[in-house]
Amino acid sequence: MKRLFYIIKKEIFDIKSNVAFFIIVVVMPLVYLSFWVLTVSKDVSFPVSLQNTDVDTSFAEHLLNYATPDGVKYFYSVEGGKENIEMISIKEPIAFNNGEIVGRLELNLGSIDLNMTKNYQNRLTGATNSYIEKNFLANKAIKINEYKTNKRDVSWANYFTASLLGMGMLMAGLLFAALSMTSEWKSGTIIFLFTSAQNPSWILIGKEIAFLLKGFMATTIFLLVAKIISPFSFDYLGLFASVFLGYWFIGLIGLIIGILIKEPIVSFLIALLASVSFWILGNGFGGMEFLLGSFGQIMVLLNPIAYLIALLQYFINGAATNWLLDMLVLIGGIVLLQIVSYLLYRQKVYLPRQQKS
């Protein structure tokens, strides 16, 4: 047991020799979060300059009050005359004339971003339909209502908080675990593992406990700063369980990288590339099924990180998911990776030296 504590202590204090990597895995997700919070500070509300409002003041007022089920307005008014400002000009008032609905609106977009263009068009169409149904076709038209699938509407800032927590966990888990082995190869202390009479299981357990502790340190810093940048509440017990299972799963992948790769800089680059790839293909940046169709859907189903991100979204933002199934997927992955890491350590580190001696 003393040797186990020694392994854990050694791994924790190894942060000093890899302090640059520790700073990277903590700071990078927070930099991204700060960028997104500043970018989406108005949440789902989009800026628009309303022109000729005196032509139809009723519609202009309705447009600026058009909101989500939770009351977040889709548009907010800004002054016109600036470059790249989206403008809605009311050319003719919306009215019911001789059995027809007439009127003319003009939407000028300062952005050529297809996603933003689509968003503005959809919002203006929704506001117009809502206005017509309310004022001219009450109880005579198909009524369009929005209903929430989640417990509550989630702000974009809070959505990215949960998503970037997943990215931070990937970076921290992969790097801390990989470096715990590559540092042994580089510094020559691998000889002590070669000659150790300890069962490989104890050495792996010590390293796993250490990367879990270091991971929780990084996550605690992220959550404390994130709550200051963009306040949010979360389910403490559920989030703890999700972070614990997530780090264990991710760390085992990092440990396997460290066993196979002896150069710290190479393992760092592989871990960095893997963390970004797992995050993007795990719905970290949005719905992959919408971006890549059926291929994206298959990638999400096969990627355990997608289940981790779903858990983080659930316990932070109340997003809809089967949290028990998500946890079972992670547990299954942990069992599989635990077996693989043990066999690799035994083959690459333990048995060669035992055979020589």
Folded structure, characterized:
A 4-stranded mixed β-sheet has the order 2-1-3-4, covered by helices on one side. By secondary structure, the protein is an alpha/beta fold. It has helices at about 1-15, 20-40, 55-65, 115-135, 155-185, 190-195, 200-230, 235-260, 265-280, 290-300, 305-315, 325-355; strands spanning about 45-50, 75, 85-95, 100-110. It folds into 2 domains: about 1-40 and about 155-355, no CATH class; about 45-135, no CATH class. β1, α3 (about 55-65) and β2 form a beta-alpha-beta unit. The model has no long low-confidence stretch (mean pLDDT about 85).
Helices and strands in order:
Blueprint: H1 2-13, H2 19-39, E1 46-51, H3 57-65, E2 75-77, E3 87-97, E4 100-108, H4 114-135, H5 156-187, H6 190-195, H7 200-229, H8 236-260, H9 264-280, H10 288-302, H11 304-317, H12 323-356
Parallel strand pairs: 1-2, 1-3
Antiparallel strand pairs: 3-4
Helix pairs in contact: 1-7, 2-5, 2-7, 5-7, 5-8, 5-9, 5-11, 7-8, 8-11, 8-12, 11-12
The gist of it:
With 357 residues, the chain is of the alpha/beta class. It contains twelve helices and four strands; from the N terminus they run H-H-E-H-E-E-E-H-H-H-H-H-H-H-H-H.
